[in-house]
Specification:
This protein is an all-alpha fold. The protein has two domains: 113 residues; 140 residues, no CATH class. It is built from 16 helices and no strands. α13 runs parallel beside α15.
């Protein structure tokens, strides 16, 4: 009952907060999410004011306590939102992201930040390579964020495959190197992994094709096989990509490649 009472209290408190200053938005956001995290529910200030919160966190935030800025970035990250921050706040932002990494995968009301997004942006896939987070320069972060934002702007994978101008992003060598290491995330497919797969298919290097051929040898689940096949078919204009599709047919049943499959249903 205590949790229900707290949720109702937050609903009432944050539903009508009126016009707020920058510092007040940050204070209420942190207050709400600290309590929500403790009792494992979605804080009620964020749903009402998420546009204001996101806009606030992109500002210079002059005069705001540094720890509050870190905490605000932490909660924003664990709610799945990576903000385009000002350069002066970038070190604080990285601290907030690092704090969020410790609870990735612990449940919807605790942390919804996707590991694939973190890896694409910072090259971090475990606490053992956290140094990659702090080695990511601000301009590198902005460039990779452009790609992650773009691929998440699509509403379906077919739309992404048709419309994404992947060749423009291949000019960023960091993106390609990270895409070539993204296959461990492919069995939990999302728009980050879809973007990585398109980069690998558009890239003409043998390295990218070998990455995918190697992935075929990892006893893939049926849903992943179908997803790969659907992407390969849309990019089979090159000989190398035709070979990828043929290899998939050689290793897995025909119906796995050709027939839509969703493990949830």
């Amino acid at each position: 009952m205590e949790k229900d009472t707290i949720i109702q209290s937050q609903e009432k408190k944050y539903q009508t907060t009126g016009k707020l200053t920058t510092s007040k938005i940050i204070d209420l956001f942190i207050e709400s999410e600290n309590e929500a995290l403790q009792y494992e529910f979605q804080g009620k200030f964020y749903p009402y004011r998420h546009y204001d919160i996101n806009a606030t966190l992109t500002k210079a935030l002059k005069g705001i306590d540094k720890q509050k800025i870190v905490d605000a970035y932490f909660h924003s990250a664990r709610l799945g939102t990576i903000i385009k921050v000002k350069e002066n706040n970038y070190p604080l932002f990285l601290k907030g992201v690092e704090k969020a990494l410790s609870s990735i995968g612990k449940g919807h009301n605790i942390n919804v930040l996707k590991p694939s997004k973190v890896f694409f942006l910072f090259g971090v896939n475990s606490p053992n390579n956290i140094e990659n987070l702090y080695n990511t320069k601000y301009n590198e972060f902005l460039e990779t964020l452009k790609f992650v934002t773009k691929i998440n702007s699509y509403t379906s994978y077919p739309s992404l495959r048709r419309k994404l101008k992947a060749s423009l992003f291949l000019e960023n060598p960091i993106l390609l190197r990270r895409a070539q290491k993204m296959t461990p995330f492919f069995n939990q497919f999302n728009f980050e992994t879809a973007g990585a797969l398109v980069l690998l298919l558009v890239d003409s290097s043998e390295t990218s094709k070998q990455v995918l051929l190697g992935f075929h040898n990892t006893n893939l689940p049926r849903e992943t096989v179908w997803i790969l096949g659907s992407f390969y078919k849309d990019f089979k204009t090159s000989k190398a990509n035709k070979l990828l599709l043929n290899d998939l047919y050689d290793k897995y049943p025909l119906e796995w490649v050709d027939e839509y499959y969703n493990s949830i249903f």
